[in-house]
Amino acid sequence: MNYLSKISTFFVRGWISIRPFSLPASIMPVIFGTVLAWVYGGASMHLLHAGLAIIAMTLLHWGSNIMNDIYDYKLGLDKHPTPVSGGIVRGIITLKQAKRAWISLYVSGTAVGLFLVWKTGIELLVIGMVGITVGLLYSNHSKLSLKYNAMGDLAVFLNFGILGALGAWFVQTGSLSWIPVIWSIPMSVLVIAILHANNWRDIPDDTRGNIITMASLLGDKRSLRYYGFLIYTPFIMVLALILVPHFFFPQFPALPFTFIITMLALPHAYQLWKKALSRSKPVLPMDFVTLDGATGKLNLTFGLLSIAALIIERGLHLYPLILG
Known about the structure:
single chain; mainly alpha; Farnesyl Diphosphate Synthase; 12 helices; about 0% strand; globular
């Protein structure tokens, strides 16, 4: 019983520290890029490579979350736990354990990535090195820290957006393309929305700690407008990527019309907007505190609908061949 208790305690510690709610933000672009390569890149689906790409991204993301907790705690930013994070500040994981876990996860994720480089090509190494560099610079004690110098939004846009999709595309096709970069932008913007919701909530603590984020620069009212921009713009981008190439730039590939189904996530965005508007007098006490996690669910829904759109598009192309 004592042995089982230890295993249970270890699982709970790890689960809280890695912030499981945020995982879809990193793996959705990888799955999207993989399916996109299968539908548009002429790639045969390499399931082993796809699985390893997801594992590598997951390990690196978990490591980044723990590293972020370490530096937030050291800088005195995390004084009170939130419902979805705070392993160190809760006292259920020590700094030493957190450092060990962070390094282990980064080394493991890098090892998986290097295996994929060996199996696919050196270009993936460049993509991976950019991603790991951004991850290491995201939060630390140096003056180059991206998170603490209002560059966190750009960091997650790159790492948990276009780089993930591009890397996954390359793993499947062995070639580079602008298609996964451009078509993953709407999803990448929603990842920024997750981070902004977190930073918006943390403006008082960040200000006291002399930490500069986009939210602290904008202040409360402009952060509201910025949040609205981040959760609604992806839907406008989808329509633009469908229509603009057809009417103005026929030489560029247009997003398939099947992506209209992403509009099914629009009511979810509206519900988040209402929570943001009532942040000072929330309907439920934790509505604003957990807005980052709720925004993560929107990102997941949007990502799944985008992947479904690709699969439907492939089915529409295969249907005439099956009939023939």
